Amino acid sequence: MADILNQTIGRYEIKELIGEGAMASVYRAYDPEIDRSVAFKILKDDHCVDEEYLSRFMREAKAAGALSHSNIVTVFDVGKIEKSPYIMMELLEGKDLGETLNEKHKLSVTETLIIGIQLAKSLDYAHKMGIVHRDIKPDNIIVLPDGETIKVADFGIARISEAEEAQKTQVGSVLGTPRYMSPEQALGEEADGRSDLFSVGAIMYEMLTGKKAFDASNIGTLMTQITQKQPAPIQDFCPNIPAGLRQIILKLLNKKPNKRFQTGGELASALAKELSSLREQEAEQRKQKYVPLKIRWAIYMAAIVSVLMLITVSVIFNIQSKTMTQQAVDSGSSFAKFIATETAIPLLSEDWITLETFISEASSRDTFSYLIVTDRKGIVRGASDTRLVGKPYQPPEEEEIISDKDNIHTSSLMLENGSAVFNISAPILFQSTNVGQIILGLSQDSLDEVKSVTGWLMFLLALITVSSVAVVLFIFGGLLAKPLKILGQNISAFADGDYDSRVSLTRNDEIGELFDRFNMMASKIQLVLHPDSQHSNDDTRSSEDSMNEEITTNPIGLDESLSGDETVLASSLVKSPTETKNIDDNKQTPENKNAKTASKKPVKPTPESDNDATIIASSSAKIKTAVTKQAKQSKVITKKESESGEKSS
Questions:
Q1: Which of 11, 43, 594, 613 has its CA 20 to 30 A from that of 217?
Q2: What pLDDT digit, counting tens, does each position of 577-629 carry?
Q3: Please, what is the end-to-end C-alpha distance for the chain in angstroms?
Q4: Residue 539 lies in a domain
C-alpha cells in the first residue's frame, strides 16, 4: 500500500502518523461530515499477502464493531483500500497503561482497584457478547487524561466464540503477548474469558508492585514460569496491600481456569467490595484525625499571631539595632575628636614622649581596643601597640563602611582574635591645619550583648503574646463548643426519633437565637409529623383556657351598655342545658302556684306602671339580644368540649 499520508480515503482526510505496531499503522484522520478527528488503522503491506493475518485483522474489526461499552474503544467504520483492510475508530487523548507504569513505576491501591473494576466490567460485557480479547496487556489499555477512566483497545486477536462456531486453538500455536498470556494459551489449549482474567491478574500485579509477574528474558523460560511457577509474593513489593486484594490477584493468577473468577462480573464485584472497604477505612482515618474547634482555633490564631509577631519583632529589632549602633558610632566619634584635640600639640611639636605618655594612660583605662596616631605623612608616631611606631600606617583591607561624615570615617571590621570593633579615623587639626590622623578601635562586644539581651526580651514578649492568644482562643473555643455540642446532641436525638427533644439552655446572644430557632423548627416538624402529639393538644388547651378566662370575666358575653340590674336579670335568664333541665324537673311549690294564680288576675294600669312598662320593654330588648349571643357562645363551647372529649378518648 502506497503512503496514504495527506490523502483522502473515502470521506476521511489522513493527517499524520500517530502510532505503528507489528501489524498495522495508525493515523490521525479527519471526518469533515461530522467535524471529528478519528483514528485510522490500516494493515501493513507485509501482512496483506498472508491470509492468516488478513483474517485476524478483519476478525478484530468485526469483533470490535459489535461492542458498545464505555470502557471499550468505539469502532466507527470498517473497509478496505485496494487489498489493505482498515478500521476507523475513536481517537483517544491520553496514554496507554504501559507508558503510565513506565512513568510512575507503580500505582496506588486505589488507582489499581479503579482501573481493575473498569477492566473487569468491559471484559464481562465483551464475554457476554461472545468475544474473547486474548491479548490483554498494558499497551492495549488507554488511560484517559483524567487519570482514572480507561478504554480497552486493539482486539487484534479477538475471536468470536459463539457456541455453534466454537473452534479450539491449534495445539502449539501461541497467540497474544507472551508475558501476559494465560497458561492455557501458552500450552496452545482452548482459551475463553477466564484467560483474559488471568491477564488482568498479571497486569494488576504489575500495577501494584512495579514488577512483571513473569519476568523471564527468553520465551522458553517465560512459558515455564507462566505454566508452572508462581510470581514472587506480592506483599514483598507492596506491604500495604489489603489482604482481600492480595487474595483476588492470587485467584486470578491460578494456573487452573476453574479456580479463577469465572466471569468479569464476579471480578468486578469483588474489586468493588475492596474499593468500598478501602474508602470506608480512609474515611474512618480522616474521622480519627478530627481536631476540636478550640484546638483548631488556637493553632490557627497562634500561627497567624506568630507570623505577625515575627515580622513586627524583626522590624523593631532592626530599627533598634541601627539606632544603638548609631549611638555607639556617635559616641566613638566624639571620643576620637577629643583624643585628636589632645594629641595635636605634641604631634605638631614632635614631642613623642608626651604623645606616648598620653596614649599609654588612655590605653590603661581599657576604653578602646587600639589607638594609633600618625603624622601627616602617614607614619605612626604613637600607638597602643608599640610595634607599629615608626612604620607607615596600613589601613584595614576588609571593612564594612558604616558612616563617613564630618571628615570622620567609621567602619566595622573583625580583628584576628575574632572580636568585632568600630574602626574610627579622624583628622588631627591645629588651627584648621591637618597635622595627622588618629585611628581608634572601639569594641562592639558591649553593643552586641545589649542587642542580644534586647532580642531575647522581644522574643520572650512575642512568645508570651502568642501563648496568651492561643490560651484565650482555646478557652473561648471551649466555651463556644459547649453550646454547639448541646445543640448537636439535640439534633441527633431528634434525628433518632425523639421528637420531644428541645434545647433548654437560655442565652441572650446569637447562639440563644439559634437554640430558639431549633426549638421552633422541631415543634413545627413534630406538628406536621404528629398532629395529635402532646404539643398540639397543649396548644389547643391553651386556646380554650384563654376563651374560658374571657367567659369567666364576662359570663354571658353581655353588652357593656347594660345596666347592673339588666345584667343580673339577663344572667338569671341564661342557663346551661343542664341547669334548664333541672329547673323543669323541679316540682312547683305552693308559693309558686299562688304566684302563678295571682299573675292571672287583671291589673289596673297607673302612670307609674306605664313608665315602668316602657323601661321594662327597652331592657327586655337589650336582654334578648344578650341572651341570644350567649346562647350561640354556649353552643360553640359545648361543641369544642365534645370534640376535646372525643380526642381524649
A1: 43
A2: 444 444 444 444 444 444 344 444 444 444 444 444 444 445 445 545 554 55
A3: 97
A4: no
Q: Which residues contact 488 (CB under 8 A, 6 or more apart)?
A: none
Question: How distant, in Å, are the alpha carbons of 32, 40, 42, 213, 538 from that of 11?
Answer: 7, 12, 16, 45, 81
Residue 225: pLDDT band by 50, 70, 90 thresholds?
very high
Domain that holds residue 643: 545-648
Query: 492 and 575: one domain?
Result: no
How many other C-beta atoms are found inside a 10 Å radius of the C-beta of residue 154?
Answer: 25
For 459-507, write each residue's pLDDT tens digit. Answer: 899 899 989 988 888 888 888 888 888 888 889 888 888 888 888 888 8
Helix ranges, 530-606 (H): 534-553, 564-573, 577-585, 590-599
Domain stop point among 90, 109, 127: 90
41 is in an annotated binding site: yes
Please report, rounded to a whole number, the percentage of residues in the chain having pLDDT higher than 70: 75
Q: In the chain, how many domains are there? A: 4
Going along 155-285, which residue ranges are E strands?
159-160
Query: Cell numbers of 476, please?
Result: 473561648
Residues 6+ apart with CB under 8 A from 298: 470, 471, 473, 474, 477
Shared domain for 316 and 180, answered yes or no, is: no
User: For residue 313, is it within any domain?
Assistant: yes
Dihedral, 402, 404, 410, 414 alpha carbons, nearest 10: 50
